[in-house]
User: Fold this.
Amino acid sequence: MTAARRLPAFTRSMRAGIHALRQDERGSAAAELTLLTPLLILLLLFVVFCGRLADTKLRINDVAHQAARAATLARTPSQATANAQATASAALASAGITCQSLSVSTDTQGLKPGSTVTVTVSCGVGLGDLTSLGVPGRRTFESSFSSPVDVWRGTSPNAQAGGTP
Assistant:
């Protein structure tokens, strides 16, 4: 006689039930999805975090561009520095970026027609504010942009008459 026939009927039916359960895959996809859902949500939040970092970097680049352009429109180096600072602050506020520390440095090279004005904007942003996810830490974004001073721009009437501009 075989070993299966020697076992009591209860044991044989129990083995058959266990074998049937092993072969039955109903509900396995739901169980797998339940286990993977937290990982998928974490991956989604990481993608959002990276996207917000990239967006902030692009906005800081734009702020540096705007500040450099505003500085080239000034007539004096001190006014160029003030214009760059004011424009950078206003552009950051309109972009919705709150800097924990903001530094705007302006290199006017004398602000002569044909020269370039270079503005460097450095903005320290808290990662918790940036992503709205409560991520600890801080990141400093820095961008520099150069804009030419118009070669054909006019001078003030005082400068033409030999006075100070």
